[in-house]
Design brief:
The complex is a heterodimer of chains A (269) and B (434). Helix content of chain A is 26%, strand content 11%. Chain A has helices at residues 2-6, 9-32, 162-180, 192-195, 224-240; strands spanning 88-90, 124-126, 199-206, 212-219, 258-264. In chain A, β3 (199-206) and β4 form a beta hairpin. Chain A is flat, with a radius of gyration of 46 Å. In chain A, 17% of the residues are buried. Chain B starts with a helix and ends with a strand. With 434 residues, chain B is mainly β. Classes of the chains: A alpha+beta (269), B mainly beta (434). Chains A and B meet through α3, β3, β4 and β5 of A and β1 and α4 of B.
Chain lengths: 269, 434
């Protein structure tokens, strides 16, 4: 009764009218709905090939020489005499008329199956016999190269001692830095694209005092400005009389009476 | 008929000379293992990335060895050390293999494994292994030392030295010690300490004045001492200090020995000045070799040259002399010469007075050419001394910035400094342990 008093009859009628209108409107919209919109797929442009300049990176570490111990010549498997296979029988118990009337201890081995034949008198008896034999382990393969070297080396390698190769590479970097600090690139005189193509090879003679006593450009770059810069650099080195860094005391023989030097500019940065 | 053979012999003898005069000098073919040296004009330097494997062992000796070796490698400046925090997860037991792919991903080229464990109740085993990751999982170098447990620190230094020797072809020199003079208590005394700043010990008598210490043959300590204002005399301290018998009645201010320990040089008071005498290591056959009115602070180069500080009177400003020839720049008061047998060759380091009573370090080649300044605007930097392997330069500084005054070491590879002690003194000397 209290609820009916809260709403007037015309309010109830108005609410019912709105509800009917909303339901009818929704039904009408659903009945007349149609989807005309179409989403077009975006066509991805096929990737265009972009030329990439490949810059070879010099491997500073002298290549290790391939080496190892020679594998002794061996006969084919079919000719190798295999060890005789010993057939073993599991220890089992079976009833026998020869058994004494009184035994101190009953056997604890399993009972022999009724249809199984007895083992021969000289059979090798074992407590447990593995039915499935283990697969043979393959012997470790070693390089069949009878010369000093490393298994991870290459045929063209020259160094057999990895520690020496590492130390020599450090010294090589030191020599390179020594020349680098004295060579000023002609970046302001030669366009970058041209500069990157140039390379001049030089053989420098090293004196007993570890100075560069003379040099010869064995393969000029062909560019007069670049070759001129290389020549002026080497002239200054020869006349300056500066000493090259000494080789590591443990490998004092790595610096001989001449060294090969290649002048080039891999990038203009 | 007899003249023809003679002419032939003469012609044969002259032929090489004629050819040399006419043709350009042709260098001999490349005969080294260095291959072709690339020269690109780039000054960027490549440092090898090195990792020291972490250790999970709780043993004290293992913790000490690993800590010492890591700090030695940091001070050396020879490698780019991968921080401990970047170590890949994994097993780090002594027998566990090195995870080559994981360390390679971090950029490591070399991996170092060090460990220590008890050998018996009194001794320990110390191991050092080096792996070149390009070479695989097998170590390319390993060293094992069995030493008394008390020698754990110095053994760790020896392991570092061996590892540096294996990787660079030049052994390290962390198993070494320093000596210097400094005010200590009531007087000026001679002190010694390990190369990493540990084990500082006063060696000279407490009530005497002692100056200019140096290391002599077989790691023996020598210094000049004055007892109650008496003339300075040379003391040889090979455990028990004893006075050296030298043919001088006046003060002997300082003493130096050559690399082989066969020659000795001393600075002796003479005619209101001082002179340098050179002779045998036992003090015999001493001959005066200096010509300047004031000559002090003798020091031998690795190649046997003798340098000292000379000047005063007619010579004016004190300069550095090498084998009798002034090599330091004129007009700058120079002092405290020291030779360094560096990886770049032999270098001479000394101090120059730069104003406001401050001194700075400069470096030249053995003949004084190619001068380069090593310190600037960082207090007064004095008394340089090179590590025996020539990779580090120690000196005293009064700088107030950074870690403050003290004894610093400068890496001659990277030109970075690290403080190893708060002590400031004079006449610093550095030598290998016997």
């Amino acid at each position: 009764m209290t609820t009916l008093r809260s709403f007037q009859p015309h309010e109830v009628a108005l609410a019912a009218g709105f509800a009917v209108i909303i339901e009818c409107g929704l039904s009408l919209l659903i009945a007349t709905a149609s989807n005309q919109a179409h989403i077009k797929a975006i066509d991805q442009a096929p990737p265009e090939p972009i030329p990439i300049e490949v810059k070879p990176i010099l491997d500073d570490v002298p290549m290790l020489k391939l080496g190892g111990k020679r594998v002794r010549a061996k006969l084919p498997d079919m000719w190798v005499r295999k060890p005789p296979v010993v057939k073993r029988y599991e220890a089992t118990s079976a009833p026998t008329p020869k058994a004494p009337e009184k035994v101190d201890k009953l056997p604890d081995t399993p009972l022999t199956k009724p249809n199984k034949e007895p083992p021969p008198p000289d059979a090798s008896i074992a407590k447990k016999v593995e039915e499935t034999p283990k697969p043979d382990e393959k012997p470790t393969e070693v390089p069949n190269v009878d010369q000093p070297g490393a298994a991870d080396g290459v045929k063209e390698g020259t160094e057999t001692d990895p520690l020496k190769a590492f130390a020599v590479s450090q010294y090589r970097i030191k020599i390179s830095s020594w020349f680098n600090s004295r060579f000023k690139r002609p970046s302001d005189e030669i366009p970058c694209a041209e500069l990157k193509k140039l390379r001049a090879s030089v053989t420098a003679s090293i004196s007993g005092e570890r100075t560069v006593s003379s040099y010869s450009i064995t393969k000029p770059s062909g560019n007069a400005i670049f070759d001129g810069r290389v020549k002026s650099t080497l002239d200054a080195i020869v006349s300056g009389g500066s000493e090259l860094p000494p080789p590591p005391p443990d490998y004092a023989d790595v610096l001989g009476s001449s060294i090969s030097v290649a002048f080039f500019v891999p990038s203009c940065e | 008929m007899r003249i023809a053979p003679v002419l032939f012999v003469v012609a044969a003898a002259l032929l090489p000379e004629i050819c040399r005069a006419e043709g350009p000098a042709t260098p001999p073919p490349d005969e080294t293992v260095l291959g072709e040296i690339p020269v690109t004009g780039s000054t960027a330097e490549h440092f090898v990335k090195l990792a020291i494997l972490p250790s999970l062992s709780p043993d004290l000796e293992d913790v000490v060895v690993r800590g010492v070796v890591r700090r030695d490698f940091e001070i050396s400046g020879m490698f780019d050390l991968i921080p401990d925090g970047k170590s890949p997860p994994g097993l780090y037991g002594f027998d566990d293999p090195v995870d080559v792919p994981a360390w390679s991903n971090l950029g490591a080229e070399v991996v170092i494994k060090v460990a220590a464990r008890k050998h018996d109740t009194k001794s320990i085993e110390v191991f050092g292994l080096a792996y070149l990751l390009a070479h695989g999982q097998e170590p390319v170098f390993q060293k094992k030392l069995v030493v008394p447990a008390a020698d754990v620190r110095v053994t760790a230094h020896r392991i570092t030295d061996a590892l540096l020797g294996a990787l660079t072809g030049r052994a390290g020199s962390f198993a070494s010690h320093m000596t210097y003079a400094a005010p200590w208590g009531q007087s000026r005394r001679v002190l010694t300490m390990d190369a990493d700043g540990h084990d500082l010990v006063p060696r000279s008598p407490e009530k005497d004045t002692s100056v200019a210490p140096t290391w002599g043959p077989a790691g023996t300590l020598y210094y000049s001492e004055s007892h109650e204002y008496s003339p300075f005399f040379v003391v040889k301290d090979a455990g028990t200090p004893e006075r050296m018998n030298l043919p001088f009645a006046t003060s002997v201010y300082s003493v130096a020995f050559d690399k082989e320990g066969k020659k000795m040089a001393v600075a002796v008071a003479e005619h209101s000045g001082s002179a340098i005498y050179e002779g045998n290591a036992d003090g015999s056959e001493m001959k005066k070799i200096s010509t300047t009115d004031l000559s002090t602070h003798p020091v031998f180069s690795p190649s046997g040259k003798l340098a000292w500080v000379g000047g005063g009177g007619k010579q004016g400003t004190q300069r550095i002399f090498v084998d009798g020839k002034a090599v330091s720049p004129s007009g700058f008061a120079a002092s405290a010469p020291a030779f360094c047998d560096t990886e770049e060759g032999v270098r001479l380091v000394f101090t120059v007075l730069v104003g406001n009573d401050r001194q700075d370090l400069v470096m030249t080649n053995e003949r004084g050419g190619g001068i380069a300044r090593l310190t600037q605007n960082q207090g007064s930097n004095t008394y340089p001394a090179c590590s025996p392997d020539g990779r580090l330069l120690a000196f005293f500084t009064t700088r107030t910035q950074g870690a403050g005054a003290g004894l610093y070491v400068l890496s001659l590879k990277r030109w970075t400094t690290q403080k190893i002690s708060s002590q400031v003194g004079e006449s610093l000397r550095w030598a290998l342990l016997p």
